[in-house]
Amino acid sequence: MALINCPECNAQISDSAFKCPSCAHQVRKPKRSLFGKIVKAVFIIFNIFMLYSVFTGMGASGEVINNAASDAERAGAALGAGMGAMMLGILWVVGDIIIGMLVFLTRPKS
Ligand SMILES: [Zn+2]
Questions:
Q1: pLDDT for 69-102, tens place per residue?
Q2: What is the distance in A from the centroid of ligand 1 to the CA of 8?
Q3: In angstroms, what is the span from residue 2 Cα to ligand 1's centroid?
């Protein structure tokens, strides 16, 4: 651990400090930990994946509804698609809350 001079008040501070203890000048920007970076990447990938699932899911169920032979089959497919979309929506929200909390907890501290 080396000592550097604060650019604001010239006090001797540790080079591992984020803020100068005497004038509170921010010397370095706190960085997200490796785990925090992974969590943030997972959060982004999860949202892209869910968005993709919703779009492909809607396309696939639309095809089933159009190709259905009977009204009953059509109704079943529509119901199934609705339930699937709801499940997907719940999964999306719950996943976002859990991963979002992890992103919040691993945010860089100053
Ligand atoms: Zn200072």
A1: 888 888 888 888 888 888 889 999 999 999 999 9
A2: 5
A3: 16
Q: Are residues 26 and 69 in the same domain?
A: no
Tell me how far the alpha carbon of residue 32 lies from the centroid of ligand 1, in angstroms: 23
Same domain, 21 and 38: no
**CA dist 69 → 56, 63, 75, 80 (Å):** 22, 12, 11, 16
The DSSP H or E segment spanning 66 is helix 34-67
Q: How many domains does the chain have?
A: 2
pLDDT of 49 higher than 90: yes
pLDDT digits (tens, 9 = 90+) for 2-31: 899 999 999 999 988 889 999 999 988 888
| Ligand 1 midpoint to CA 77 (Å) | 67
Q: CA-CA-CA-CA torsion for 59, 62, 67, 68, nearest 10 degrees? A: 140
- Domain extent, residue 20, equals 1-30
CA of 12 to the centre of ligand 1 (A): 8
* Claim to verify: residue 26 and residue 36 sit in the same structural domain: no
